[in-house]
Amino acid sequence: MNMRGTPQFAVVVTLIATFFWGSNFQVTKFALASLPPWTASVERFFFAVICIFIFFAWKEGVRGRVLTQNWKAFIVLGAIGIAGFNGAFFIGLQTSSPITAALIVATTPITTNILEAIINRRLPEFIRVTGMVISLLGVAIVITDGRLISDGAIQVTMGDFIIFIGSLGWAAYSVGIREFVSNSTPLATTSWTMLFGAIILAFIAFFIESPIADLSKGTLESHLACIYIGIGGSTFAYLFWNMGISIRGAGKTAIFFNFVPIFALIIQIAMGNMPGLAQMVGILITITGVFLGQSAIKPKKLFDLLLKRSNGELR
């Protein structure tokens, strides 16, 4: 049986995408050790664009018809989902704490479903909303180690607001590639949006920093990190994410974004840093919420099964 194009295949490639994004948190530390953020981001997408277009040309062939038909959408989506999201994250972290930033980004599945519902003029299923809320709670527990609020209050900075705008940009990108791009494959959409996003990032980098001089001063370790982030954490991640959206839709795919901090934590464990009890509880809650939101867990069927067992109807 050919798995390609099936919901099961979409789940697998979506999980792979979130793994790559989760690994970016650790690898980015090596990239930023000797490179400024905008320059590192440009180098990352330089390798990503080369890699994706080589694969694009080999797999499908680069045809002008798709670009001619969708060039406006590709530019806008590249600006929002590639340059906008990454730029807002880098700028926002200048005043926002990593914990607060991660919590804000974790709201992306909720905003994605809201945007998709508004565009399609329908409400998301209650069970999906419930699953998202539960998984979001789990993510909050993981990234705060059980401390959801410190000092009795939540302090919002300008960086928090900027990161929230960036998360809205990613939600709009996830919905937009399905709603506003026509007659294009996931590979073509990923390639063109990534190209335009990289061009916009380059303009910003040359305006704010000195990329050429900074790249010449970078260490081999930082450049290797950028290559990994560009190929794995950008090319394959974006491609697999778009494949998932094309098969299952933006709403069903977006909830898997909550796995990004979970995979980041797993990589942290592999590097010798064990999580606490609160983080382990958060992982279980997140996974439960994701499966619930994907309707992999049917509450009514589960309740009926437990009821039958308690009545001795099952052996």
From TrEMBL:
* One GO cellular component term noted in the UniProt record for this chain: plasma membrane
Subcellular location, principal = membrane
- Looking at the record, the residues that make up the EamA domain are 9-143, 158-292
Q: Which SUPFAM superfamilies match?
A: Multidrug resistance efflux transporter EmrE
Instruction: Note the InterPro entries from the entry.
Output: AA-Vitamin_Transporters, EamA_dom, EmrE-like
Compartments (UniProt record): Cell membrane
Q: Which residues cross the membrane?
A: 41-58, 70-93, 99-119, 126-144, 156-175, 187-208, 220-241, 253-271, 277-297
Q: In what way does this protein cross or attach to the membrane? A: Multi-pass membrane protein
Keywords, in A-Z order: Cell membrane, Membrane, Transmembrane, Transmembrane helix
Key word Ubl conjugation present: no
A family per Pfam? EamA
PANTHER family, per database record = INNER MEMBRANE TRANSPORTER, S-ADENOSYLMETHIONINE_S-ADENOSYLHOMOCYSTEINE TRANSPORTER
Identify its protein family.
Answer: Belongs to the drug/metabolite transporter (DMT) superfamily. 10 TMS drug/metabolite exporter (DME) (TC 2.A.7.3) family.
Q: Quote the protein name from its UniProt record.
A: Threonine/homoserine exporter RhtA
Kindly list the organism's lineage: Bacteria, Pseudomonadati, Pseudomonadota, Gammaproteobacteria, Enterobacterales
